[in-house]
Amino acid sequence: MSETKAPIQAPNEVQSAVQTVVKVIRAQQQFVRSGATRPVEFRLRQLERLKAAIARYETRILEALQQDLRKPELEGYSTEVGYAYDSIGYVMKRLKQWVKPERVRTPLTHVGSSSYIYREPYGSALIIGPFNYPFMLVIDPLIGAIAAGNAAIVKPSEYTPHVSGVIAEMLGEYFDPGYIQVMEGGQEVTSALIHAPLDFIFFTGSIQVGKIVMAAAAEHLVPVVLELGGKSPCIVDHEADLDLAAQRIVWGKFLNTGQTCVAPDYVLVHESVKAELIAKMKAQITAFYGEDPQQSPDYGRIVNERHWNRLMGLVDSSKVAVGGTGEREDLYLAPTIMENVSWEDQVMQEEIFGPILPVLDYQVLDTALRNIGERPKPLALYLFTSNSRTERKVMESVSFGGGCINDTIMHLVSPYLPFGGVGSSGMGAYHGRYSFETFSHRKSVLKKSTRVNLSFIYPPYTAGKLKLIRRFMK
Question: Is 219 a catalytic residue?
Fold first, then answer.
């Protein structure tokens, strides 16, 4: 997830902010320690309350998304509001089963005993959200935090002030700050939060800031989940359905104006079908957004001028096949396809996180896979092919967070699949039950029998006891 910010430090001037944050954290930790969040009935009521809050504020949320990102209502509902409804419903139907102590197998060396895993809340969890899906990417982790019995501090992105304001008002109206607190602001607030003695941090954003968050968390040994990003490849084989590939690649790339952490960052296509694929993608852009996407109500805008400037700097006009134009005052950047791109070009040196799609070609799949493997592990990978051997080869050869075969983005939507990165694209995963697990500490408990006592493990040690232990442990 590429949300580039200047490095966050912990200078003396933020110490007062840290003190304020610590007071909130202490109050939340005390609330969790009181046992108030433990009953599953309490958690279900809070999830129902959250759903009611979203329903009441739905119109304002969608309006705020339009103001901050020019996000179309359908996109805003399906990827943010509606997604939250579905996530809450899924968790509520299953939470009673998830919170039960889980009995697991016990080895023969503990004969007469039983083994259990108890899931307990960490305490006060910090959720830091990004600008690209500014509502969903704080609410979805919050659902997991509530389900697991935590209190939470929510830090929305300052880059989307309208959405941030609505979130603050909504959660402030429906929840006590000793349970759920929203903290708005810029780098000073974020710095104060990540340097505070929290119990858990869930961060979605850029690799650069993820490193800073992790370093700050180390001060108090706070566990972290980092949902980051990277350059997610999209491989198109010569045996792919090119019409389908063009439609699904264009949709996945230009959804939310390319500001999606799992968007195809670049296309790696077999040279024999490259020209045809580019022509079909060009036609698909027109089919989606018309001859002038700037006039389309279905095409959004870049979040701010700084990001617009960064993106325009990645466009090489000599390699533009489609688009390449923009208007700073409108924060508009046309859906852009660049061809004849090499691995050394500037557009291939960082995650794009915008509506620019470089196209590279390959002759031999092994070479393409080696090129991908020599770079940081991506958050997502997409493959378009009708060949099952190619499919198996790619899936077994490349390490990535998650992905799709013959589609883009959609693996993100399944609550049955964990979503998260690997290596520099992140650590930890969530969605569905994985959200509950992520925000839960798994406490291992062995319940020993009082009727069976293995006295041979106690001193004094003898040759006979050693012989018996060797029988059991080999």
Answer: no
Per-residue pLDDT tens for 29-62?
A: 999 999 999 999 999 999 999 999 999 999 999 9
Check if the beta carbon of residue 426 is closer than 8 Å to that of residue 226: yes
Distances (CA, A) of 470 to 113, 322, 429, 474: 20, 72, 40, 6
Which listed residue (3, 75, 80, 227) is catalytic?
227
Beta bridge partners of 85: none
Supply the pLDDT for residue 7. 42
| Burial status of residue 68 (CB atoms within 10 A of its CB: 0-12, 13-18, 19 or more) | buried
Domains of the chain, each with CATH number or no CATH: 12-229+424-443 (3.40.605.10), 233-420 (3.40.309.10)
- Known catalytic membership, residue 261: yes
265 touches 231 (CB < 8 A): yes
What pLDDT is attached to residue 3?
46
Tokens at 227, concatenated: 């949902």
- CA 78 and chain centroid, separation: 17
Active-site residue, selected from the candidate residues 3, 75, 261, 339: 261
Q: State pTM to two decimals.
A: 0.94
pLDDT, residue 108, reads 81
